[in-house]
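During data preparation, a discrete fold description was generated, as reproduced here:
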Amino acid sequence: MVEVLLDREGDASLPLGYRLVESEVEFLHCPGLSQNLMIRGEKLCNWAEVFYRARGISCQEVISVKREIRSVCSHLSDEHIQALMGQLGERLDILRRPLTIQALLQALYPATIWNTPLSVRHAASWLLWLFHEDPAEHVQPLLRRIGELWLSEARHEAREVYKASSRQDAQRLLEDWLGIGDRSAVPMVEEFPHSVPDALQEKARQTWTKRIIESHGAFFEQIEKLNIPFSLKKLAAKETRRYYVKNYGELTIPRLNQLIPYLSESELNQLRQYIAPQEPGQVPEEPVDVLKWFRQRYLPYREWQHQRADIEAKDKVQQSARQFAIWYLDSYPKALAGASLKKWISFNKVNELNCGENCLMLLVVLDGLHATDARYLLQSIRSHTQRLDIVAEDFAFTTLPTITQFAKEALFRGVPPIKVPYVEPVGEILPEDKSPAIKLASGQHRGIFLWRVLEPDRTYHQQNKSENLRQKVEGCLETIALIINEIIETIPDHIFVQIVITTDHGRLLGRAVRTIPVPEKMKGHGRAAWGETSKDYPASGYIIEDQLAYLFAESFGLSEDVVIPLDESAFLGNDDRAGSENYPHGGIFPEEIIVPWIVLTRDYVRPNVEITIKGHGRARRGGTLQIHILNQSDIELTLNEAEISLRNDMKIRLQLEAPIRPYSEITHSVDLEPWPSPAEAKIAKAVARLRQPNQMQFDYPAVIEIESEDIYVEQENILEDLA
């Protein structure tokens, strides 16, 4: 049976097997009623409809493409629609009907952004898409419409950016979010989650260089406080360094210390030639203070001294190093028995690692990573990915002696070296020199994994005499940073990933000359020797003779006695081979003993939550607390506990375990007895602890409004008026 299609708008595609009729003359020349026709044009369609109805032939209206497009977005003008149709071309015919705005935009600009779940990351992607695409004017109404839809659906803090629909809007918001403009003008607390485009990095450099000059370098302090990508802080640090190179008289130690986390060793050395760090001074007594001393005093001075041929500075380093050695020799045996140093020793810190049900923890143990190299590695990691946040950038004390065969297995098993044969590793050991990314990418693995990396120790030994040793070490650290980035990108997103970076031992920041003969019945390697000493040890467990410390195996948790030099010397090599070695290890200098302990967490985002605690009760009796929680994040949380502080020595801890769905609020009631007094209620403070499904916990200060009625308050005298 013949079919007649009516195309009133004149914009429909001609179906296969149909004849197009666009004028009365063409219509009159149609051969009878034996051919399928498409009649085009409003006037001709009206005439043809009457003609065919009289002959009992039905006509079918063709849906107008213009009307279809306008139904998606009513703000489109005829000119907009015509331009969209020209841009889409034949792709219009293959789009699934009915048309949707997402399908239309996907056909115009193929991208994942149109169907990605809404989040802060999606909002940032939207701004970058607008910035890079610079969409044409005829697309703007579509973009405004999709933005309206997203704005109404989104619940995250960055939803206001969906009001942007042009490159100009996006650039303004991006500059504010990145701190190039007014960072306080954007509602996002979270750091911008994507790489910063080159054009915006250049805009930041130009903008900030001017302010660095105007502030005489002080502007960097403002940049460091902003929650912006590491790459931009590094850029600002480099521009600040350039300023101080030309104006070194204005450089101060506090300003230099602010730049340390962002500059390379060579860049720091360039600045340190203009200003000497503080001298190390006395070694403190408490472990936590020793670590602070190492970070703030000893390490900067040691790095500065290492680059200078300054005999006086070297003498001061050696004096401090010897003080530290005596402190550690005194403290280490006591720590093995449970003294305060215990929790700071790296093999004991391994025992504290905790991984929840949906957690994968990777302990990356690099061989011989000293503090300076760890700083460079962390810079490289942060330059390659924004998905890893620093939870802890600490130090720990390693075992004695600082030799791989003693320290590494002790670290893996969480025990002193003497107990290694009797204890299993704390997690699954992954192969050396092989990226664990493929193994961990399946999403089937949970728990603790130990990845031992032979670098940078191998490069230090193989390239020890190379003039480019520093560059080669940095090259291998860069490779490790790339592998870590690969690991966190391949592990499925629903798994909570935490990475701990540490090492078995540090290294001497300097050159050791092999001058010490290896004692009889002992083996030597670098700056340590072990075997039988046949000495009569005192209660301290060690003896110092000249520049050598003899360690009693039993006191130091070893299977053999050990000898360690207290100066920068090393033991003779095989066949009494002399010579020297750059960056050796085995000794007891602070940089050999104090090692990095860096904890990184993937996609670390603090949920947006508001907590209020209210209640009323009678003092010393009972009452009810109402704990109200507003969860403005897109993940489910659990109210783990709440702690109310009434006085310095009095706290009320409430174990709750109350779930809170995403984008919801709950009020949790808790009976409390005894109820605080009015004085206690007035000064009460509260903290609530929330837990994510990945076991990450966050503490939040709560607004607390509790009232207390004291039963001993003097009552009003109702007979007073009768007196």
